[in-house]
Amino acid sequence: MYRTHNCGELRAADINKTVTLCGWVQKVRNLGGMTFVDLRDRYGITQLVFNTETNAELCEKARKLGREFVIQAIGVVTERSSKNKDIPTGDIEITVQELNILNKSEIPPFTIEDNTDGGEDLLMKYRYLDIRRRPIIKGLQLRNKMSFEVRRYLDGHSFMEVETPMLIKSTPEGARDYVVPSRIHHGEFYALPQSPQQYKQLLMVAGIDRYYQIVKCFRDEDLRADRQPEFTQIDCEMSFVEQEDVLQVFEGLAKHLFKEIKGIDMNYQFPRMVWKDAMEQYGSDKPDIRFGMKIHNITDKVKNHGFKVFDDAEYVCAIAVGGCANYSRKQLDEITEWVKRPQVGAKGLVYIKYNEDNTIKSSVDKFYSPEELTEIAKFSGAGTGDLVLILCGKKLPVLNQMGVLRIEMGNRLGLRDKNIFAPLWVVDFPLFEWDEATQRFYAMHHPFTSPKKEDYDILETNPGEARANAYDLVINGIEIGGGSIRIHDSALQVRMFKLLGFTEEKAQAQFSCLINAFKYGAPPHGGLAFGLDRWAALLNGSDSIKDVIAFPKNNAARDIMIDAPSKISDEQLDELSLIIKPLTDK
Amino acid sequence: MYRTHNCGELRAADINKTVTLCGWVQKVRNLGGMTFVDLRDRYGITQLVFNTETNAELCEKARKLGREFVIQAIGVVTERSSKNKDIPTGDIEITVQELNILNKSEIPPFTIEDNTDGGEDLLMKYRYLDIRRRPIIKGLQLRNKMSFEVRRYLDGHSFMEVETPMLIKSTPEGARDYVVPSRIHHGEFYALPQSPQQYKQLLMVAGIDRYYQIVKCFRDEDLRADRQPEFTQIDCEMSFVEQEDVLQVFEGLAKHLFKEIKGIDMNYQFPRMVWKDAMEQYGSDKPDIRFGMKIHNITDKVKNHGFKVFDDAEYVCAIAVGGCANYSRKQLDEITEWVKRPQVGAKGLVYIKYNEDNTIKSSVDKFYSPEELTEIAKFSGAGTGDLVLILCGKKLPVLNQMGVLRIEMGNRLGLRDKNIFAPLWVVDFPLFEWDEATQRFYAMHHPFTSPKKEDYDILETNPGEARANAYDLVINGIEIGGGSIRIHDSALQVRMFKLLGFTEEKAQAQFSCLINAFKYGAPPHGGLAFGLDRWAALLNGSDSIKDVIAFPKNNAARDIMIDAPSKISDEQLDELSLIIKPLTDK
Questions:
Q1: Fewer CB in 10 Å around end: N or C, chain A?
Q2: Do B521 and A104 touch (CB under 8 A)?
Q3: How high is the pLDDT of residue A586?
Q4: How does pLDDT run across A258-306, given as a tens digit for each residue?
């Protein structure tokens, strides 16, 4: 072993010990006859001290050390005269007796500091240097601890981790698969899993009762910020359970993680919200409940006052923004422009200022009396000093727009503190989703999701209202994961396939293995999957999942550090019986 | 929850409790007025009892249960009149009060018993039923426990699990990559990792000190028994260590696993053997040291006695097979034929019978006196009653043949008890491997493997004798894993590339990322990787790794359960700009 201790563990209690440390040179400072070297490894920083009076040669050697040199220092732990309260090793320093350069370093392309001077492309190209920076290594440490604690919790609850295959069968529906050509089987391909959904249900048929896996999944989607072509899921499934059992077990997991990772005790039951309320009150199926600012349906209150825009609208809704009645014309114009951007898509914005002095001011003064406006403001949750923002249009789109505006106002008012965590179960998702383009219903979750028993009767007559035993865990407005109770009854499954327009042939073509397996005694079962990257980013206080992925790809699905994807050789193509179609042929 | 207990946990202490169990019907037996149902889940079997006198209707219902029906039974834990000592729940049975059929089952294609009547293809096609069988579920449980304990041990030793990417860059040398066409980047491909070797070394440059990962790896190899296209590695790397440190840490891991999985305390240091001794004494770089039967070099003793075969041979070696002097002519002929099979490849076999009565009998009586033969026998380790088997030829091939024969004789004599575990470190592997075809040296491990310091001087002058800081962990003749200390000194690395005939361009083309990374302060580092499938199979007493893989592929790399690989749609091919070359064009 090249060292006796790491750079983060020595304390006052170690004074007078002779130690050997290894690490990277963070900084060299010369102060008069003294030279100080900050030695860094993943555990921390320890100060090395060299005195030109006691050992001029050694001190000279230290002065020549470059940034990021790898060194070994042997010396005695000494009490510092001026202590550094900012770091755990700040009470001590090492009076060095021997210094060995283990490796030199060229000058790195950016500074290895918490706040670096490197741009994103440079940081990604030299990710192995980026990782040396405290914020990145901290993110990876958090992710590691989180994975370990997930396993510890689930293992303690009789879950078995089972590895499912990576080389599976491509299914045409759903998101796009990454495929892998087979060399042995001419013209055939494997697919990389988008999730182990079918396999975990097969494991339930197999009697594995409580399954989990922390597993890489793949989706060949079009470019979008903060999506990775490969991502990691905490994938879980249980047998002989109902929805309540699943929620209890995984609420326990969430609490375990908050406790172990963040030191937060969540000694309360997570709130639950049905999907319909989430949409109507928060304009989102993943409400951020760290702040109120609920959406109110004011359609009935505003119609028939001669304001054509409202009269023509299907739905009019409002939020009350606390303490913003004093917004200037300029500020209100800016918000109006903001909601009219294509990313939000509103046609316009109506406001009511409910002033501190009880007066009222609105962009629709002409159509409503001050009393009417005051009533609308109060109904929308406003008190004096608050600002009411109103949008109108078709119900679901306008709720979505209002949901986005609500989040924006929450951000502007500083209501979304990263150190506060507000978990929420969203339940009773719709079973089906209507698709305007193809004029038919699709399964919102997947075709094996079970309807709620109370809604069995309306499956055929009113499918749009039918609810599923499906649930999402949402924290701070981020969907951390979700799942459902599956159908295990074959008659109900046949009914579902029919409703979804699956012929028997089509169902067989896509799901034959699972459908056949279900003939041999499928237990009642259900489960869920969490996005590990996203959950880790949330706990890490990161805005991007890249902060908790060791070697992420860029937004063009490219690893610019190792240069992938790249051309392969003609021999490889030939062995796979593949020809690349020239771009011009497309 | 559909149940209060599982089928493996009720004991005499639970008598009189009312419980609810769920599971699969293993067996229904009618004895007079009583009906007994064996209810099975992954935890065990519990006996349900129905009495036609107390509840005829319920009993009738139970009698109609089919094999593998999924049921829920509510009843009272009762003491059995005739206890079953073979199962942990054998003291009790459940007197059932309510029986619910949760799902029916068709008659399974094979019996769900420890010894099933299903052939291998049928078992693989219905793997989800195969897994219900105790031997398979036990294998998966062992694997799960092993993975968990690996993590627990390494986490306790400051190792961080870091996920490395699955979509990486293809490198032309080495085994064949599986590749993944990119849709966005025309004509480019990702590769699936054969191992995270480059990434783990980059993590050392990044300062992650102690890394591990239990990770899927991929190799597109030609068909071979008991190989899987995807397999799982326990991949590890450490910084600031020498070979001894790596061996200590991972010997600790091995001991931890033997203790936790098999309850075996290994309170001794694992023996170590240099590669040269392993080859000369066991004819293998992975000796099974559960038994002796060492190989002895008798070249000098047998030459110049007029026996042309030996006189012409480069190397003559022998093993002494205990207690087999009484082998018949027929038995010896059979062994001779066995070693002449192409799989072994020997030209012939010479024997010496050192009989109980001190007489000697050999197939080469003509050329050697009984005294000479006795001396050879004794030198080969034989005593009276033993049989000496002799092979000759070129040194390395004949040692390999003798190694295979030694294992075969060990098997025949029952010397390879599955319940005995004999771990061994094989160290000092050669740095280079000579390739006859291309008349040059190749790196035996990989080009970053460091030579032993003592051999720096002979790298250019006598490369064939140079040894590496490389090591394998071998248990019972199976290579469980191996690794090396890497080169971190760039001057030495340049020297190695030169020796291996890499031009600078070629080195850059294959390893540019790692070579560049090494410029910025690479720490001394080394590591290893274990084959999880193989180690789990070994601990499970399995001959095939398929016993510890939930959904293995067959020997043609096909998943016959889910039918992969398979054709993909023309749209998919088109999006990927791929054309499949017809077979006839090849």
A1: C
A2: yes
A3: 45
A4: 999 999 999 999 999 999 999 999 999 999 999 999 999 999 999 999 9
User: Are A229 and A246 contained in the same domain?
Assistant: yes
Same structural domain, A249 and A142: yes
Largest CA distance in chain B: 93
Residues 6+ apart with CB under 8 A from B529: B195, B233, B234, B235, B236, B481, B482, B483
* pLDDT value of residue A510: 82
Q: Are residues A446 and A402 in the same domain?
A: no
Is there a contact between A177 and B572 if contact means CB atoms under 8 Å apart? yes
Residue A556 lies in a domain: no
Provide the residue count of chain B. 586
| C-beta of residue B194 within 8 angstroms of C-beta of residue B221 | no
Residue B263 burial (CB count, 10 A):
7
Query: Is residue A7 one of the residues assigned to a domain?
Result: no
| B521 in contact with A, Cβ within 8 Å | yes
Calculate mean pLDDT across residues A134-156: 97
Nearest by Cα to B339 from B353, B328, B351: B351
Q: Reply yes or no on whether the pLDDT at A585 is more than 70.
A: no
The confidence score (pLDDT) of residue A303 equals: 96
Task: Give me the residues of chain B with pLDDT under 50, please.
Answer: 586
Strand partners, A434: A441
In a domain, A23, yes or no: yes
CA–CA gap between residue A118 and residue A133 (Å, rounded): 12
pTM, 2 dp? 0.96
Give me B7's structure tokens: 């089928």
**Optimal mutation site among B246, B566, B573, interface A, most CBs of chain A within 10 A:** B566
What confidence category does residue A227 fall into, taking pLDDT thresholds of 50, 70 and 90? confident
What is the domain-level CATH number for residue B78? 2.40.50.140
Could you report the per-residue pLDDT of A393-440, keeping only the tens digit for each?
A: 999 999 999 999 999 999 999 999 999 999 999 999 999 988 888 888
- What's the CA gap between B19 and B355, in Å, rounded? 68
For A537-558, the pLDDT digits (tens) are 999 999 999 999 999 999 999 9
The residue that leads in pLDDT, A244 or A501, is A244
Domain boundary among A416, A439, A466: A416
Do B435 and B405 fall within a single domain?
no
With vertex at residue B498, the alpha carbon angle to CA B497 and CA B501, rounded to the nearest 5 degrees, is 90
Q: What is the pLDDT of residue A406?
A: 98
> A453 and A359 in one domain?
no
Pairing of strands B179-181, B189-191: antiparallel
> Among A499, A522, A540, where does a domain finish?
A540
Give A104→chain B minimum CA distance, Å.
6
Mean pLDDT of all residues in A73-95: 96
Cα B271 from Cα B269, distance rounded (Å): 6
- B525: containing domain: 138-161+194-273+424-540
How many structural domains does chain A have? Answer: 3
pLDDT digits (tens, 9 = 90+) for B86-125: 999 999 999 999 999 999 999 999 999 999 988 999 999 9
Residue A142 lies in a domain: yes
Note whether B552 and B545 are within 8 A (CB).
yes
Residues A333 and A398 in one domain: yes
3-state class (DSSP) for residue A427? strand
- Cα separation, B418 vs B537, whole angstroms: 11
- Please tell me the distance in Å from A68's CA to the nearest CA on chain B: 6
Sheet containing A360-362: which strands, arranged edge to edge? A296-297, A315-321, A386-393, A350-354, A360-362
* pLDDT for residue B586: 45
A69 contacts chain B (CB < 8 A): yes
Same domain, B376 and B463: no
Q: CA-to-CA distance for B586 and B584, rounded, in angstroms?
A: 5
Which CATH number do you get for residue A334?
A: 3.30.1360.30
B212 touches chain A (CB under 8 A): no
A428, A412: one domain: no
Residue A255 has which token pair? 């609490």
